Input
Amino acid sequence: MKYNIIVFSFFISLLVISCQQEHSKLTNTNETTFSDPLPSWNDNLTKQSIIGFVTKTISKSSSDFVNEADRIAVFDNDGTLWGEQPMYFQLAYAIDYIKKEVPNHPEWKTKEPFKSLLAGDLNGVMKGGEKALLEMLMVSHAGMSAEEFEQSVSEWLETATHPKTGKPYNQMIYQPMVELLEYLRANGYKTFIVSGGGIDFMRVWTEKAYGIPPYQVIGSSIKSKYEVIDGIPVITKLPEINFIDDKEGKPIGIYQNIGKRPIFASGNSDGDYEMLEYTIKGSGPRFGMIIHHTDSIREYAYDRNSPIGRLSKGLDDAEKNNWLVVDMESDWKVIYPFDLK
Output
């Protein structure tokens, strides 16, 4: 009996020590997690403004407390969550797709904007304006099933690299913004992408990159049709625009897909102006944020005169609208995830 008591005491001691060690691990983890929720942001007023807003909206003792069901945060994607220079990344995908498929489309050799593209004349492509770009994006979708398009984008992401950084495009996401998304979700916010980019293109990779599932992605789309092929139900893409999720289209996309006015919105260009305006004009606490590309060394510096991600009206009206302008050069310690030391 004495032996059994000794053995039992020994196992109890091991259990207590194990629990103490586990508690210590959890305590240390929590301290690391919550001591600085935005470690890639410099410690200044910009960071304090974000944390201050989140803190007051989740504190039940605050007059600005927001019920969890109403904590909706929306983000543009191109130029806000990942890069967009020297061209929209989805356009880079479309260009690579067209070059690969040209043997199956000899008519492209004499038809614009494909003729200029195949000749390496991107300026000639751009002369066609939005119509030319939309046509290129449509042909990179049309005729494919949803599954075929997803596979095509996935394969492209595995091999394509950015011309300046040499990084795969899905590593060109902004580490400070990934941290912000995680911080918001940890505090009961639901995070949505509301982007002018193609909804199907984004849905392939956003969950892995940002933790945002496909059903929380709103974007531009082309029409599709339902058909049964060899007994299998299939969604097939058509060469026809369905919805453009840009400018005034963004509040419409939010209304139609979310059904609630956000309380937090972030963008980087005048294409996001209406989304920010729609967000901050609601009642209760509101937060609008613009990512200003000011870092020509680590990324790109551009705003008013850029053909991509042009930011002019948003800069002019930021102060009167009480929008926070994030200066990438001075507010972010790092740009991309693998820049972390």
Summary: Residues 42-87+166-339 form a domain with the Rossmann fold fold (CATH 3.40.50.1000). Confidence is low (pLDDT under 50) at residues 1-33. The longest strand covers residues 217-229. The beta strands are 72-75, 190-198, 217-229, 232-243, 264-267, 287-292, 324-327.
